[in-house]
Specification:
With about 180 residues, this protein is mainly α. Helices cover about 70% and strands about 0% of the residues. The protein is globular.
């Protein structure tokens, strides 16, 4: 006698438990650090091509790091405006900070302005310093998010990987500022 297929998740077939992502992969394989790496690689590649053509304008590690930071902050800023991500980012803001929606929007504007400022020679160093300070200023939201854990719906990272990520980004901003 033929059997009828039973849809997954019904009583006949127990639902599989949700897969948990590796916390390191969750942090370092997210759009922001990937944008940072792609920006560095793309700027270095363009710099190498231009240097081969006799114009070494982007052929320095500072230029590559600046390209990575600029792309990273533009991607991060765009997340502040995406309605699907915005609610989770607002939830990351510690409760002691008033008007979290405004704070998320303001950080997005500051990230975008800083990303553009990195590309303008007259504001390059100041933008890098300001972005480093912004990263330090928003770090309490990362701590709050790590404490909330899964209640943020996957928009959090465990504190240790997120702290390492933030230290790398701050160090990159400082290197660009003094480079």
């Amino acid at each position: 006698m033929p059997t009828t297929p039973v849809p997954a998740g019904t009583a006949a077939t127990p639902a599989a438990p949700p897969r948990r992502r590796n916390p390191w992969a969750q942090t370092f394989l997210s759009p922001v650090p990937i944008a940072f790496a792609i920006g560095i690689a793309a700027t270095a590649l363009v710099g190498a091509v231009l240097a081969a053509l006799g114009t070494p304008v982007l052929a320095t590690w500072q230029a590559a790091l600046t390209g990575g930071l600029s792309l990273m902050f533009l991607i991060a800023a765009s997340g502040r405006l995406n309605p699907k991500l915005r609610a989770g980012l607002v939830a990351m803001v510690p409760p002691a900070i008033p008007r979290p929606g405004l704070v998320v929007a303001a950080t997005g504007v500051l990230e975008a302005a800083g990303a553009i400022g990195l590309l303008v020679p007259a504001t390059h160093h100041a933008a890098a310093i300001c972005l480093a300070l912004l990263l330090v200023a928003v770090f309490p939201a990362n701590v709050h998010a790590a404490r909330l854990g899964d209640r943020l719906g996957g928009l959090h990272s465990p504190l240790l990987p997120r702290t390492i990520e933030q230290v790398v980004f701050v160090a990159a901003c400082v290197a660009v500022a003094i480079g």
